[in-house]
Amino acid sequence: MHLFKMRIKTQGSIKKTQLLCAFVLEDSNKITGLPKFDTKTSSSINQSLKDMRGKLGKLTIIPISGKKQAQRILLAGIGKKENLTNDTVRFVSGKIAQKARELQLKEFSIITPPTFVCDSILSVSQIIEGSKMSLYKFEKFKTEKTNKSPDLTIIVSKSDKISKAVKVAEAVAEGAIFTKSIANLPPNECTPTTLANFAKDISKKNKMKCIIISQPELKKKGFGGITAVGKGSKNEPKLIVMEHNHGSKTQKPIVLVGKAVTFDTGGISLKPGQGMDEMKFDKCGGCTVLGIMKSVSELKLPINVVGIIPSVENMPGGEAYRPGDIIKMYNGKTAEILNTDAEGRLILADALAYGEKQYTPKAIIDFATLTGACIIALGNNVAAIVSNNEQLTKKITNSSKTTTEEIWELPLTQDYMDMIKSDVADIKNVGIGRAAGTITAAAFLKSAIKDTPWVHVDIAGVAWTQGAATKEKPYNPKGATGFGVRLILDYLQKL
Ligand code: BES
Ligand code: ZN
Ligand code: ZN
């Protein structure tokens, strides 16, 4: 991964920087945190401030002549005070970092905004997340790489209590970048076995327990969903389990489950060719869980967390499962297959049932690019959640507000459960026509667990950038977004 050094300095100790950046509110006539300059320099900075007017995302660079603390000043607009959100500083920091890279600088400095914009700990976190994530580029397969990322110095008014926030923000950003970097891998370079190897790597580095269940053990242990979906591909399915045990022995763990279909052709119910390449992103839920587990273990969070990733490739091979098949799932229920493209719920149901049985968790949270219907319902900037527990939903919603990874809850009443009843088996893997597709998929998942508090996050619309419908953000360049990593790390830290 790219190099990027980070330092914290206090105001007054600004020595020499190639680019000194300050945030400015719309139509404000003040810049906080800049060192004192001579009258000529000050008046040209003030003139630039008047000209740029602090519009959100607007950047203005002022070259500084002579031997000064800074070779250039950058004024970064953050918009109107009443429009500030928990994303403003992250968003604008990302723009600044990309500008610094474009200018081929070795380093740049950002002055934290005044505390009425954002408290100092939050702004340090957001500056780090925004710039780190924005400097990530997926170029593993490019012969020519972009120049090295510039180093960042954050200039704070007081440095106390900030070092922990710095460590956390760096680990969070690195988790999200790790998720993006594996989610972006092409399907020929990333099979279930590849993902299992990533899990082994991070587990070894950060002392997690890692269990990989392969064929024929999967079949023997009754993972009927994973086995059925995996049959059509030469690349065998894997169930990946990682345990981070840093809580007390008696503390129930949080179980995180992520769908990792390394390529979803639809199987025998083959998808149309148009846009099928994007189905390499059908592993994003699993990649999110990998990124979270990496950060959790790096930060040594004092809790127990288990990551479970069912991974398959959904292919229409000669041994592929078929519409009409009836399979027996891990929890003993039978499922009628009516569409082999509704494969995610089959592998997730096995993983959820396994997680509940094996770990009696305090809560289960799953991530999946589960339904196209989710994009129809909420578009590409908000994920759908479906849950069986109000309290857990509240906590996740709270973390969504802090991290601005947006979610919206859909209902799951008995009527929806009835929509997946089968004539010939216990349940079927599709609902009734296209009605409430996201909810009927969630209903299938719910049927796999007994009574553990559970939140399902459908990330079909948000896991990767999907053209103009995805809001452009500097920290989400084209490709996988790592959605969910920041959200759940916030939730876990507040436990
Ligand atoms: N991986 C897809 C869902 C998907 C589609 C995610 C487009 C992101 C973008 C999933 O496996 C699938 O194909 N679901 C079907 C379910 C249907 C057959 C009941 C769908 O959504 O069409
Ligand atoms: Zn599918
Ligand atoms: Zn899928």
Provide the descriptors you would attach to this structure in a database record.
495 residues, alpha/beta, 9-stranded mixed β-sheet, 6-stranded mixed β-sheet, 14 helices, 34% helix, elongated, binds ligand BES, binds zinc ion
Walkthrough of the structure:
This protein is α/β, with parallel strands linked by helices and 495 residues long. The protein is 34% helix and 19% strand. Strands 7, 8, 9, 10, 11, 14, 15, 16 and 18 form a nine-stranded mixed β-sheet that branches. It has a six-stranded mixed β-sheet with strand order 1-6-5-2-4-3, sandwiched between helices. A three-stranded mixed β-sheet has the order 12-13-17, with helices on one face. A hairpin with an 8-residue loop joins strand 3 (59-63) and strand 4. It is elongated, with a radius of gyration of 24 Å. The model has no long low-confidence stretch (mean pLDDT 96). The site of one zinc ion has 5 residues, from strand 10.
